[in-house]
Design goal:
Blueprint (H helix, E strand, L loop, with lengths): L1 H10 L6 H26 L1 H15 L1 H9 L1 H20 L1 H22 L3 H26 L4 H4 L3 H43 L7 H8 L6 E8 L16 E6 L4 E7 L35 H15 L34 E4 L2 E4 L13 H7 L7 E4 L3 E2 L4 H13 L6 E4 L4 H8 L1 H12 L7 H16 L4 H8 L3 H15 L6 H17 L2
Parallel strand pairs: 6-8
Antiparallel strand pairs: 1-3, 1-6, 1-7, 2-3, 4-5
Helix pairs in contact: 2-5, 2-7, 3-4, 3-5, 3-7, 4-5, 5-6, 6-9, 7-9, 9-13, 14-19, 15-19, 16-17, 16-18, 17-18
């Protein structure tokens, strides 16, 4: 049996090495032909460089512009790339990495210059084609019998070209990512500085250009705090709105550019609001005659009259006709719910109120912005008044955060202009709690359900401008039930809802209890 095994082993054919030796000889001869032709190209490198630059100027618009701007710089770059590439064909071990480094450097520099990648790859493939054609022409002219050998290295040459195209593309994309990160980081830092109010005045033109925002534009700041952990997206702004979002520690902030539309943004003198003659007022956003929400002034005056005049309808201690919700005018007429186009008294002057309009472009006022915001459930949003100029964005950010603190805990949108009493409470929380304890503290002696019912009734009555009739509709009860509850509140707290100062304290106390109670 052993002799059988040995015979079988001896019977196995020996490895066939003849063709491999022949193939090795062919490859060596082909490489010799390649090296010889490549050396000729290297000796005539200036001519090859000039030819390639001329072709790029003719065929590639992106390179044409570069050549016209810096012909010497482009020629030197092409010359350097061709020299390293051809030398790496002759001495691959010594020059391969240097050639790769040059290609990566070109890809990165062209990305920084904004040259299209397609143009760059076209230039490299065109250079490879011209180099290969030069190898073929040189071999055919001087050694035509070696043309058959040059075919054996054609795949290697084009593999080399493809490799360097890949290296160029990788470097280009990497640089693009780095540039994008730098731009994003620069925008983030600039936006944060505007919101912090730390931008230097001398830097504002550069900031405006980088963020594509007008330096003297009209802005509002939106502060967003998610009310639920599942909510991650900020509110959707109206279509066409130009805004810069910025992540803060407690939520999101947005600098919103408001369209300039004097027809819907009439304002008599407040800072950042165009006045009737087109100038910008400087009295500040909280000036008595410069509040951006003139309609809220009218409502405040109506509420004060309703609470302060014994003959006012709806007052529980007046004995008049509760629930009409009107107030006497100077001529004895009643100021009922105003309609668009009605005249509004403001600062002793009468002006026609502009008619309501539906807009489809970017909002022009914070109120329009708030009305058109798409706010997810549970998200809290605070919106600042209008400010003029990027330099005032930091001030607007503070107002927006105050408005956010005045927003209900279950979500919603608060315009600071329309919630100034609540803003006063949240900016002085200790005083707000003290006021709530002083005014509403006596209600602690009654049953919690009764206390909640009295607070709910009083809140509805204040929201109804002191009208028991309208409050009864909100509460789904009879008007007399509302009056009885209000009288009980007066008895428990010692407050009189016919005294304006008491009504102010009660309103602020309710606001403090709602916003500051944990």
């Amino acid at each position: 049996m052993p002799h059988v095994l040995r015979s079988r082993v001896r019977a196995l054919p020996a490895p066939f090495s003849g063709p491999q030796r022949s193939r090795s000889l062919v490859d060596a001869e082909a490489l010799a032909v390649l090296h010889r032709a490549a050396q000729v190209l290297l000796d005539n490198l200036d001519g090859l460089t000039s030819s390639l630059v001329a072709e790029l100027r003719e065929q590639e618009p992106a390179y044409r512009a570069m050549i016209e701007a810096d012909p010497s710089g482009v020629w030197q770059e092409v010359h350097l790339s061709l020299r390293h590439s051809i030398e790496s064909m002759i001495r691959p071990r010594e020059m391969r990495e240097a050639a790769r480094l040059i290609s990566r450097r070109i890809g990165a520099s062209r990305a920084e210059q904004g040259v299209p990648l397609d143009a760059l790859l076209h230039a490299f493939r065109l250079g490879g084609a011209m180099a290969w054609q030069g190898l073929v022409d040189e071999t055919a002219r001087r050694h035509p019998e070696d043309m058959r050998l040059l075919v054996h290295v054609a795949a290697d040459v084009w593999t080399f070209v493809d490799e360097h195209c890949r290296l160029v593309a990788e470097a280009y994309h990497q640089t693009e990512r780095q540039l994008a990160w730098r731009r994003e980081n620069r925008v983030r830092l600039m936006t944060g500085a505007l919101l912090d109010g730390t931008t230097r005045i001398t830097d504002l033109p550069e900031v405006a250009a980088t963020l594509a925002l007008p330096e003297a534009g009209r802005y509002a700041v939106v502060a967003v705090s998610p009310g639920a952990p599942a909510v991650h997206a900020p509110p959707a702004l109206p279509a066409g709105t130009r805004a810069m979002w910025h992540a803060s520690g407690d939520g999101e902030l947005a600098i919103v550019l408001l369209d300039a539309d004097p027809d819907t943004d009439w304002h008599p003198g407040g800072r950042g609001y165009p006045v009737a003659d087109g100038n910008v007022g400087t009295d500040g956003p909280w000036a008595a005659n410069g509040h951006p929400d003139t309609d809220s002034h009218a409502r405040t005056a109506r509420n004060a009259d309703t609470a302060g005049h014994p003959h006012t309808a709806g007052h529980p201690a007046a004995g008049g006709s509760p629930g009409t919700g009107s107030r006497p005018g100077a001529d004895g007429s009643r100021d009922m719910d105003r309609q668009p186009g009605a005249e509004v008294e403001h600062g002793g002057l009468a002006r026609p109120e502009p008619p309501l309009r539906t807009r489809t472009g970017a909002p022009t006022t914070p109120a329009e912005l708030a009305a058109r915001l798409d706010v997810p459930p549970g998200v809290r949003v605070g919106i600042s008044p209008v400010v003029t100029g990027l330099a005032a964005v930091g001030e607007a950010r503070g107002y927006a955060e105050i408005a956010l603190r005045a927003c209900p805990r279950d979500g919603g949108v608060v315009l600071l202009d329309e919630h100034l009493p609540a803003a006063l409470v949240v900016t002085s929380p200790n005083l707000g709690r003290a006021l709530a304890d002083r005014v509403l503290g006596p209600l602690g002696c009654i049953d919690p359900a009764d206390r909640e019912l009295l607070v709910e009734t009083l809140t509805a009555w204040l929201r109804s401008d002191g009208s028991a009739q309208r409050a009864a509709k909100l509460l789904y009860c009879h008007r007399n039930t509302v009056l009885n509850r209000l009288r009980r509140f007066e008895q428990l707290t010692g407050r009189s809802l016919s005294r304006p100062s008491d009504v102010v304290e009660v309103s602020l106390a309710l606001t403090a209890a709602r916003l500051l109670t944990t």
